[in-house]
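WARN  no MSA supplied for this record, continuing single-sequence
INFO  ligand: zinc ion
INFO  echoing inputs
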Amino acid sequence: MAFSRATFLLAALLAALLVVTSVQGSGQDEDALDRESLQEDVSLDNDHAVSYKGYKLLSVAPVTKRQRKSVIRLAGKQGVQFWLAQRNATGSFVAQILVAPGAVARVTRRLKDKGVNFKIVIQDLQNAINNEVTSLRDTDAIESGRPFVWDKFHRLSAIYAYMHQVARQHPELAEVKTIGKSTEGRDLLVLKLGRKSQSVKPAMWIDGGVHAREWISPAAVTYIIRELQKDTGLLNKMDFYLMPVANPDGYEYSHTKDRLWRKTRSMHRAANATKTALKRSRPCYGVDANRNWDSHWGQRAASMDPCSNNYQGPHPFSEPETKAASEFILRLAPVAYLSLHSYSQLWLMPWGHSDEPSRHDLQLRKVSLKAVEAIQDVSGHTYQTGSINTVLYPISGSSLDWAHEKAGIRYAFLVELGDTGDYGFVLPASEIEPTGKEMLAAVREVAKAAIEDAKSK
Ligand SMILES: [Zn+2]
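INFO  complex generated
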């Protein structure tokens, strides 16, 4: 497509960005984030929660090559965190960077000096977070009989209670399965939705919350649960396995301590470090649960630094969360796989590790187009589509590549939900229903194609 030169350029830019961040000992994110550079700047409140008071989110739109370079050079700089770096649909480069209060003057001066267009989209991130938290109060009361709602973000216990409630109310089609335990001992729960039948039906896997701070993702999965349980026609033809919170430790941590937490909560020290380096290195928490899968693990664009936001872990499936999910998926052998992330409205296909197309590329593209058309019909949102490697940048050890390559799931997709940058990770709860609705339409398209496919075999 005409887009390919632009995407190639972007890949090159992001590769450069990666080099910069790894030299700094920090990570590259699929959201192009370098969190460690922020770590020293974030302060602790009395209740030991990380405060983002005075942090500003900047949307940056460099036009010339020089301008792009100067923006990319900001990666790894003190007080600068990339939330996003990609080409938009028109081919122009956009980035969103979170800037600590102490770095705002320096960063904006630099952008002005280079003539780079930018605007401040969030004036004070802590304000945005506080507004979000206000709407969270008292949402854990589902056990005491209050209904689960979709205009609030819920804590893990409420989401789990909702899953159990669905299973209790619909024993003929719903069942909660515990597939393992997290590092901190939390249950890993999957809800199965499907009419009981004599024959084995094709199955579809849908997960959310792999990255803790992407709160819209678990919320969208619970919306899909709400709607799918009513669709007995579809549940006669297919079984759905839905895991709203694939990283429960990280999810809870993002609610209680650090709204921008991304990884799991295991603890690691740098491997293969020299004795002095090891002495100096502090252990860090968490593995990027989307770099830890046994598919081209550790090859490209993942970090070996335990303190990086993209730390791949000491070995594939080092995390109990990814290990349990992968073992369950292998036994299940689903025909379709969908992993929901946020943000930037992308419908992504394999591969992440390579720019070679999948041998199922044609079918994947066909289904992707149907899915993004369905989304457009429902919400008017335009999701860009293509492989992770071409639309974003190379990543290795991703669950999507593993699902397609190792689990042999033909219809495997990763979705970056909304928004496109007005709120980023701190999306208002009013977006839960619209997002759930557009994803449900896409899920139906994938299911349709996968059922047809299974029939023809
Ligand atoms: Zn993510």
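The longest helix spans residues 432-455.
INFO  checksum written, moving to next record
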